[in-house]
Write a structure and sequence with these properties.
CATH topology: Alpha-Beta Plaits
Largest sheet: 3 strands, antiparallel
Helix content: 25-40%
Radius of gyration: 12 Å
Number of helices: 3
Strand content: 15-25%
Number of domains: 1
Distance between the termini: 14 Å
CATH superfamily: UreE, C-terminal domain
Structural class: alpha+beta
């Protein structure tokens, strides 16, 4: 697994995940429960992971749609 995206914005990860899955790339959210415990403070980021073999394609999709991601 390789990290693709890390953010405290609660709307980006579901959006990115839906886009990736629409392209046949399985994406996994991490830190969902930790982020939920913090409430609306927004200091603990969530992460979106993809398989290592899919990372290049996933990064290209993020880049094409101007979604900030971890390189």
């Amino acid at each position: 697994m390789k990290e693709l995206l890390r953010t405290t914005n609660p709307t980006i990860i579901p959006y990115a995940k839906a886009l990736l899955e629409g392209e046949g790339i399985e994406a996994f959210e991490l830190d969902v429960h930790i982020s939920a415990l913090q409430g609306s403070i927004g200091i603990l980021p969530r992460r979106l992971m993809v398989r290592e073999r899919d990372h290049f394609r996933a990064a290209a999709i993020m880049r094409e749609l101007d979604i900030p991601f971890e390189s």
